[in-house]
Design a protein that fits this description.
The structure is a single chain. The chain has 199 residues and is mainly beta. It is built from no helices and 17 strands. Helices cover 0% and strands 56% of the residues. A hairpin with an 8-residue loop joins strand 1 and strand 2. It is globular, with a radius of gyration of 15 Å.
């Protein structure tokens, strides 16, 4: 498997930090994760799991908006396709399209500063949603959209890190594996105009 991947929409090469079961670039980026894979630092001190496949690159300096349409082949609980901002093992945040314990498909966010702070967003009909990470100065914002046009605010936070990488993750914390596809990837240099309405 290639160690470096170039996507035309992104201004930086991507590199595997944890390799997937498989990766396909035929029309979209399709990543398959193996069984019991996750990124999570239990806030109760019950364990750290950082074995989900992740493909990351270092963005240019300044504000930006990084987005993708994510389609997940859901099977197990907490299966997800993810956009990730990663500083190091103790400071990272993920915006997930995830299968809930009730079998719903949900937008979920996790911000980790030593321990993971997990929060549910909203449910989505079907297996596809748009996810977006924006950098605004030293802070980051998460938004999600069901149509790629109107965006809903999910989270605004500071990782406490001067630099971080961006990229893609697929996870299957309780299942036997999961695959997700990422297409319509975009990277826009410049500041998000309105944090709350996502424009």
């Amino acid at each position: 498997m290639e160690r470096s991947i170039a996507l035309p929409a992104l201004p930086m090469p991507l590199r595997w930090h944890v390799a997937p079961v498989s990766c396909d670039l035929d029309g979209s980026l399709r990543i398959e994760a193996g069984r019991r894979t996750d990124l999570f630092v239990h806030p109760g001190g019950d364990g750290v799991t950082l074995n989900a496949p992740r493909l990351l690159g270092t963005p240019p300096e300044g504000d930006f908006q990084f987005s993708a349409r994510v389609t997940v082949e859901f099977a197990g609980t907490f299966d997800a396709g993810v956009l990730l901002v990663w500083a190091d093992d103790a400071r990272w945040a993920k915006l997930c399209f995830e299968r809930s314990p009730a079998g719903e498909h949900m937008v979920v966010s996790v911000v980790t500063r030593r321990a993971s702070d997990d929060a549910n967003g909203f449910t989505v009909a079907g297996r596809t949603v748009w996810l977006r990470i924006s950098r605004l100065g030293r802070a980051y914002a998460f938004h999600a959209s069901t149509d790629g046009v109107s965006w809903s605010f999910v989270r605004h936070f500071d990782l406490g890190a001067e630099a971080a990488q961006l990229g893609f993750v697929v996870q299957s914390p309780t299942g036997d594996g999961c695959a997700a596809s990422f297409d319509r990837v975009t990277f826009i240099r410049g500041r998000l105009a309105d944090l709350r309405d996502g424009s």
